Structures are given as structure tokens and as C-alpha cells.
């Protein structure tokens, strides 16, 4: 079974939802047969690379909250994260473009390091003091910590076209699948789970998707030209 | 869309079928949205690593063919391969265990080099004089040519447990999906195509799987706790 997870590094519910999904997966009896793929989704796709501001400022400016409301929201998100054993700095975090991080995550996917890099990016953004925005060398450090080559990561960051199509393709696909927000979980392209649901919902979704996998529909064309336990069918043989 | 292809390096129809599928994919309008994953299948899973014999000998011994029949079969397979522009040595090839090659292909998958290594293994087995069986250094050379690290490839070959579970899991999955031989193509876990079908059958299968992708079934649990274009839903907010 394959689970695809659309998420954004700047999305607190993605950070929390990933931990909840992983708890469900840990107890899923067929966990060894589950492959997880992370896909790109930007909450703020129009934001320029250099446009960085404090999260609290962004919340008041973009959503018309008072500073008090914004801080209270961060406090509640911090409590939800803490309940999952995750660190969350409720004050002093920045907001900015995550496009470059998604491009790096596609490089990491090709190198088998996607999961490691995503975890490090989340941790850096939500738990560590140094900002992940507007600081390419910070991203290179995280890429190296995830097992990527520093020069390769730097080359991707220096070329805005590198893996840009892959990020956009993930985002178009999310829209096509009906995702209105993230995190968005898709199990075997058959079941969708929206949001940082409770662990039990993920557990049910895994069990259901596993149990209800439908048999393949054979495409007409017959069984000709296969090799099997009885050898290879050869025409005119 | 994701296409999974179960195949074996020792399977002539897999070699031919891959070329036919790729011709169909090249003309498929949504080819940029198609991800291809190669999965392991051994035609001869019980064969020991050191047990190598000429293909013609294996065919006569295992399937009771006369040498003449075996050679005629190889000639016909060679003609089918040639029709796809593939080189195929109809005489002098060896048969042996492909387990180590599948283990290397799983390493290559993790490093984003699976396709490159599979093509090189096919070419080495079907078109080149030097045997790919019973010669670890030959496999290391091919792994390096595919972009893998020589020491990493050597370490995998030296440890029979490395990626063994991944090979076995692929094979169990093939059985679960109803594959009786290879190549076996699975499109989005919804459609199955068995054998080295004509290009047109692959084209139809791609079009059909693309067009008939069913909408996701939402798993109950509501839409709570998502971040979207209107910000992040925060409980009690």
C-alpha cells in the first residue's frame, strides 16, 4: 500500500498530523508493506523568496487577527504539538516561502532521503530558534544532516528551475484530488484523509484501505508473451 | 499516475516488454505525470547464487526441449527483440540466480538510479558477451555505471540479507495481485497488464487508467485541523 502525504513545512497541522499518522502506522500490522511518499503543497505559493516576516505579524496582517488572537492561536497549536511529544516555539517563529524547501525535498526523494529531510525541516521551522527562511546555507546544513551532498543541495538552491516542475505537479495533483488544505493523506489513490485527524482515524483509514483493496482489472490483450514458472511463451513454439 | 512493473533480468519478454511499454509512454500526453517503479520477480527463485549454466542447457534440462527447439526459441525471441531495436545474443548466454541483481536494484531505487541500473542489467544479460552471473565485480561495474557507489554496491552484494526482505515483499505482492508471470504491469493499483503486449495495448491501458481514475473516498473524520488558504483552523479559535 502506498500513502501519499501532501504537506507544507510552514503548516503546523502538517507537523502534528505527521506524528499522529506515524503513531497509527507504528501499530498497523502491515506497516512493512506501507510505503510513504511526501508531496509538495505551499500554503502561500505567491510569496517571494526574500519575503520573510514573523508568524504573528503574518497572522494579523493576512487574516485580520489581533496580536492577542494570533498569540493565543499559536499557544493552542503549541499545546497540540506538545501532546504529540513535539517541540513547538510559540513565539518568535518566522513565515516565508517554502518553495525552495519543497524543491530540496524532491532532490531528497530521488536520493532516498526525503523522510529524513522533511523531519529536519519541520524541526528547524517549529522548534529551533534560527530561522529556516531567507538563509540558503541553513537549508544546505539541513540537507547535509539528512544525508544529501552539500554541493548538490547548493546547486538546486541556486537554480530556481530545479525540481520546480515537480513541486508544481504535486500541487496540481492535490487540487485534482480535491485537497482544500493540508495535511492531506491519500491511501492507494482510493481513500483521502483531510487534516491532522486523531490517531484512531488514521488507524481506521489504514485498515480500511488495506482490507478493501480491489482486485486489478485486467486490460484486454491476453496473457501472451510472458515468462513464468513454465518458461517463456515463444510465438510459433 | 504510477505504473509498477514486475520483471526479472533473466526474462526475455521483460526486456522486450519494457521497450514496448516505453514506446507507448513516450506518446502518452500525460507522460510527465507518470511515475514508473520497477519491482522484483525471480523466475527461478530457488536457484543458488553459484549455480550458473548456459541458457540452452537450462531450457533442455528444465523444460524438456531438444537443443534444436531451445535454439529456435532463442532465435524467435531474438527477432522480437530486434523488432524493438534491442540487441539480443541468441547463443552463448548464461542463466543463473538474479536475486543479487534485484537486491542491487532496491539499493538503486533508494538512490534514484533504479531505471538506469535495470537498463544496464538487461543490456549486460541479453546483449553483452561477459556473463552477469557468478561475477560480483561485473555487477559492481554495472552499479557504478548506473551512478551507484562501488563500495556501497559491494557491501550489498557481500551481505545476502541486504534488501532481501524488499525483494521478497515485491514477490509476495506480485502473487497477491495475481501475477502468474512477468512482465506484469500495474497501473495505479487498478489495472493489470500481463506480458509483453503490443504497444497499442499499453497505450490503451495508460489512457484508460488515466481517464477512469475514480475520485477518492473520504475517510470519516471531518475536515478539522487543516491549514489552507484561509489559515490554520485552531480549536477554540
Automatic annotation (TrEMBL), chains A, B:
Coiled-coil annotated residue ranges, if any: none
Pfam families per the UniProt record, alphabetical: DSBA
Signal sequence residues: none
Domain DSBA-like thioredoxin as annotated: residue spans: 3-207
Xref: InterPro entries: DSBA-like_thioredoxin_dom (IPR001853), Thioredoxin-like_sf (IPR036249)
Domain of life: Bacteria
The protein, known as: DsbA family oxidoreductase
Organism of derivation: Streptomyces glaucus
Amino acid at each position: 500500500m502506498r500513502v501519499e502525504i501532501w504537506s507544507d513545512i510552514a503548516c503546523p497541522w502538517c507537523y502534528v498530523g505527521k506524528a499522529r499518522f506515524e503513531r497509527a502506522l507504528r501499530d498497523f500490522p502491515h506497516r512493512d508493506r506501507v510505503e510513504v511518499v511526501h508531496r509538495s503543497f505551499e500554503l502561500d505559493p505567491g510569496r517571494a523568496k526574500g519575503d520573510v516576516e514573523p508568524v504573528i505579524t503574518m497572522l494579523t496582517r493576512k487574516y485580520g487577527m489581533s496580536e492577542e488572537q494570533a498569540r493565543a492561536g499559536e499557544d493552542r497549536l503549541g499545546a497540540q504539538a506538545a501532546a504529540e511529544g513535539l517541540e513547538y516555539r510559540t513565539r518568535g517563529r518566522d513565515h516565508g516561502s517554502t518553495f525552495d524547501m519543497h524543491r530540496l525535498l524532491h532532490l531528497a526523494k530521488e536520493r532516498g532521503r526525503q523522510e529524513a529531510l522533511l523531519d529536519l525541516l519541520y524541526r528547524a521551522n517549529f522548534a529551533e530558534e534560527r530561522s529556516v527562511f531567507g538563509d540558503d546555507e541553513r537549508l544546505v546544513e539541513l540537507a547535509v544532516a539528512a544525508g544529501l551532498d552539500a554541493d548538490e543541495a547548493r546547486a538546486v538552491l541556486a537554480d530556481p528551475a530545479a525540481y520546480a516542475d515537480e513541486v508544481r505537479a504535486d500541487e496540481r495533483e492535490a487540487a485534482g484530488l480535491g485537497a482544500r488544505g493540508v495535511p492531506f493523506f491519500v491511501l492507494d489513490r482510493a481513500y483521502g484523509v483531510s487534516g491532522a485527524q486523531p490517531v484512531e482515524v488514521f488507524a481506521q483509514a489504514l485498515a480500511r484501505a488495506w482490507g478493501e483493496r480491489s482486485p486489478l482489472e485486467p486490460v484486454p490483450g491476453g496473457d501472451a508473451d510472458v515468462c513464468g514458472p513454465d518458461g517463456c511463451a515463444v510465438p510459433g513454439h
